[in-house]
Amino acid sequence: MRYLPLTDNDRRDMLGVIGAKSVDDLFRDVPERARRKGLVDLPKRMGELEVERALGRMAGKNVAAGSVPFFCGAGAYRHHVPATVDHLIQRSEFLTSYTPYQPEITQGTLQYLFEFQTQVAMLTGMDVANASMYDGSTACAEAVLMAHRVTKRKKAVLSGTLHPQYRSVVENLCEAGGDPVEALAPALPGKTEDIISRIDGETSCVVVQSPSFFGDLIDLRAIADAAHARGALLIAVVPEVVSLGLVTPPGDMGADIVVGEGQSIGNGLNFGGPYVGLFATRTKYVRQMPGRLCGETVDAEGQRGFVLTLSTREQHIRREKATSNICTNSGLCSLAFTIHLSLLGEDGFKRLARINHANAVKLADGLASVKGVELLNKSFFNEFTIRLPKPAAAVIDALADKGVLGGVPVSRLIPGDASVENLVLVASTEINTDGDRASYVDALKEVL
Fold this sequence. Notes:
alpha/beta, Aspartate Aminotransferase, domain 1, Aspartate Aminotransferase, domain 2, 7-stranded mixed beta sheet, 13 helices, globular
């Protein structure tokens, strides 16, 4: 079958049907700053073979994370994923299954989601967890909306410890509903912020991240007490789930909702996704929790079985009763999480966390010994912030030219802020060797 190209008359007819005067009218809701000016710098047409060659040449310009010493973090971390994980999730019964719309016949899917929920609840110190969210940022935004439903209030207070991209997702979702958001300025490492004074009778929730965006470990107890005294909820964000093998769980510090990113366990960097959002809460709030909840029961013959206990998605119930319309679960990623964590076991997970922290301490000491480099954190897990004597973005580029991916310039995530221009977020996990750290220190000395 041969398709003829659209003519200008065809386009005008189509636009007229939908009531648009021009193609630009179709995109008027997209902010001007987000629109591309002109065409993408690519050939207008190519054959399949030519496209493969062109993309191959472009990909060859990248420095792959596994090919050089790698110290990037900022919310996505490179950890070792056992080969067993990929082998098991590629079994056809796992790889091809999706949402259990007829859940009781998908007992295997329900069972591993039940196990996943159990693991997340234990890690976070909470009573109950759902069957996952898309990623950490959307889980954070959903937690804010959940807090609004629980408290019957609308204002969210976001700590400066929160990842800028998480904050952006929260603000975007709340803007659509007209809900006010009070976001504090970025909490630079080693500094304290007075978030408690921002909590008032209109506050629905306080959102605090630990480890913070800059790597600081935050004691949530005083914030939780202050929030509860004013009828608000504390939402704790955990961007690096491996930290829960070493630090006090948010649930033990008074958090009402805990959300986070589970990518570090079982899931590679994958060019930014797909990832797996974690979401846990207290039993008394379970009916306001978005997503799915799998439960354990017995069948008519007394045999152990699993059911979809709670599913408050708009596809399952009336839209006005839904807790969310983006609360599908990242099923395959959560399975990878569960397999990896099961292979580690409790002792192995704690040991993994200790290795991460020890490696980060070694790297921090090495970098701080370089003239002009300042370590800013008083405490951290496996990620910390350093201040360089010159703009960080140029230094990171120079390090990449020397075969070291030295971290993430803070200016990339908080553009236009002169106070962060010289700051770099640096992460060191179990994959980094003494040789990797030595290469980083030596390369940084040369670059500076």
